Amino acid sequence: MSAADTTTQTGGGRRLDFHVLGPVLALIALIVLGTLINTNFLSPGNITNVLARSAFIGIIAVGMTFVITAGGLDLSVGSMAAFIAGLMIIVMNATMSVMGVGLMTVIVGILTALVAGLAAGAINGLLITRGRIEAFIVTLGTMGIYRSLVTWLADGGTLSLDFDLRTFYGPVYYGGILGVTWPIIVFALVAIVGEIAMRQTAFGRHCAAIGSNDQVARYSAVHVDRVRTATYVLLGLLVGVATIMYVPRLGSASSSTGLLWELEAIAAVIIGGTVLKGGFGRVWGTVIGVLILSLIGNILNLTDVVSPYLNGAIQGVIIILAVVMQRGTNVSR
Amino acid sequence: MNDAPLLAIRDVSRSFGGIEVLHGVDFDLRPGEVHALIGENGAGKSTTMKILGGYLPPSSGTVELDGSTVSFSASDEAEAAGVVMIHQEFNLTEQLTVEENVFLGRELTKGLFLDKTTMRARTREWLERLDCHLDPTLRVSQISVSDKQMVEIAKALGRNARVLIMDEPTAVLTRRETDILLDLIARLRDEGTAILYTSHKLDEIARIADRVTVLRDGSVVMAQEAEGLTEDDMARAMVGREMSDLYPDKAPEPSGETVLDVQGLSVPGHVRDASFTLRRGEVLAFAGLVGAGRTELMEGVVGLREATGSVHVGERKLPPNNVAAARSAGLVYLTEDRKGRGLLLNKNLAENLTLLALNRFSGVTIDKRAEDEALTDAISRYDIRAGDRGMLAGQLSGGNQQKLLLAKTMLAEPDIVIIDEPTRGIDIGTKQQIYGIIQRLAAEGKAVIVVSSEMAEVIGLAHRVVVMAQGRIAGELTGDDIGDEPIVRLAMGLDAKEAAA
């Protein structure tokens, strides 16, 4: 018995190391591959481009890491982002007619996005915890609802931000400090705070405990429902933040805004080493997962060896491989 | 009555991990006879039944069917030979219908397709024999617990059971349902089935059994005709073991101050109107049978279950259904289910240790150095034997898990500790350590409730014993009145005083 224990223990330890290193190695391999294929790959312009594109999914994926770690799931984030974007544009256009193009109008828009994200997250969270409905079902439902609402708001077409307002608001996406644009800065801040929250705070510890065994958490006086709801509220808020960064980029929202973001966010979380069933989460892993997914797309665009249309297929293979590796560690436990 | 045994075990012993739990047991079942097997928890009843039912091979000794030695390699071989065991937990698939369950794994077919008509007719026929008019097309999830029991028996009839082994079939049944079941057992016996019956309710045994065998600590201590045997005789045979010096000297008699006052607490479906108090420095034991509602009562007290009634810690009334409030009032509960509810098996020791008291280790962020010191402290204080500090809680042995769970609970610095089955499934040495810890807690002025199914533990540790039976507090014993017999009598729903007399 004890002999068997020791073997699994050392075996588990070794594989765990590989499990930690796996995503990092994959990221390094992609960077080397990219550099070999195209000399422009490491140019500041391309790096900024990749990071800025990663930022939206990345900010959302950090929130998703907490939801999944606590044993939940949220399929609604892509639709939620589209709905918030549409709402934001309508509110800003309306405010502009009263207050004109200016900081106040943008602030009203930003507040709208944050409040809407918070509320949407709270709805998901409360339906799951108080309503005792499975997360998959609740968020599948809200995913359809938000997608439909934005299509309805846009009357089947596109909602556009007023041209002058877009010019005024534009720097939030295009501007930055020392050549680093705001979406990248915000993504970095969210990731750093998220990493600290996951590893160093009672909230992160409670998320992992609930995902690992919610009965044990309950018997240990953890407010299980409250923490679970908080993960969805946090995610909703971060969807709001991501949308604030996203709207100035195109200045519009339609029924295809944020399409499949939920799957990319979930994929990034899983590739990063967070356990899909919950109990263990890693925010820095999620950041690497997001970068891996964006780099694949970027490399395919820079080369003509493989069609960029195969982007999804390659991402799919990576996701499945990541889960196979995860299973390796779980079996050894 | 035919005297040749149908199924028998001869001189059977069984060991688990080097520890022998059955010592040379003889037991037989004859056609047309109900043979009751009784004993305290852990006496070896389940092991005996599993060996008879082909679920476990004996370590030594033989199993004989129709007079010749057999060795069933799996329970389905035993079933093929007409030996069917009905487990305490039902073996039914909730989402399938009654008839689908009855024929599960041996469905009748007509060509490529299921022969539903015949299966339905047969199921109905077997249920009718049990005087049960259940619609075979209902889903099992829709039928009552007693009907499920009937379906289990119908399943056994469908397998042409010659031997029926029933593990506490009435534990989940009401009085009326029990009556129906006992009538049914009598009818099956008259039809020539050999029946093994176990129950903790001695009145049932007295009513239904033709013969009674009593197990104690893995040996047969009594085997005789039921005729003329009283419930008291059975209870006396079941207990009557000597006390060992496993237990530390009891802590000094508690002072008068009441620290916990529970009044009229009910947990729907489990506990009705329970009231008790606890004093500083006291060890109060809750005894009773498994399923008497002790765990549910305690979970209701600390707010882990919906409950009505009042709980006061000192002067303070606890809000209902709020574990966190109970913890901050200094009242904690240590679960009996350490793997399912106590510890995060795939997390390391430190994370488990501090989970209940995490607020003491975290301001904005968690102080990991303090956490590490707490682990060092707990390892030495509770003698947790961990090969490596980084190991997962699931890799500890059962006894060390229990000590880690104790350490985790005590880290919250409670004034009142409720410990449910403190020594379940752990070895004797660790038991002794845990008894020592409990005694020390009381001596330090904390108040301790011990819920235990082990009689010796209750007697060895407690200043006062509350006995529960069927969801109610059946009685309370103090001082010299605490003893095996009065506790068993109360737990069985009898009057404690008669036994003393």
Overview of this protein structure:
The complex is a heterodimer of chains A (333) and B (501). Chain A has a domain at 45-259. In chain A, a hairpin with a 2-residue loop joins strand 2 (176-177) and strand 3 (180-181). Chain A has helices at residues 2-37, 44-69, 77-99, 103-129, 135-153, 163-169, 171-174, 182-200, 202-212, 214-219, 224-250, 261-271, 283-302, 311-332, and strands at residues 158-160, 176-177, 180-181, 252-254. Chain A is 77% helix and 3% strand. Chain A has a two-stranded antiparallel ribbon with strand order 1-4. In chain A, strands 2-3 form a two-stranded antiparallel ribbon. With 333 residues, chain A is mainly alpha-helical. Chain A is globular, with a radius of gyration of 21 Å. Chain A contains 14 helices and four strands. In chain A, helix 2 crosses helix 9 (202-212) and helix 4 packs antiparallel against helix 5 (135-153). Chain B has 501 residues and is an alpha/beta fold. Chain B folds into three domains: 7-241, Rossmann fold; 246-330 and 414-500, P-loop containing nucleotide triphosphate hydrolases (Rossmann fold); 343-413, no CATH class. Chain B contains 18 helices and 22 strands. In chain B, the strands form five sheets. Chain B has a six-stranded mixed β-sheet with strand order 6-9-10-3-11-12, sandwiched between helices. A six-stranded mixed β-sheet of chain B has the order 18-19-20-15-21-22, with helices on both faces. Chain A binds chain B through residues 1-2, 5-6, 8-9, 196, 200-202, 205-206, 208-209, 212-213, 215-223, 279-280, 333, and chain B through 17, 304, 323-324, 326-327, 332-333, 335, 340-347, 351, 355-356, 358-359, 362, 364-366, 368, 387-388, 391-392, 394-395, 397, 408, 412.
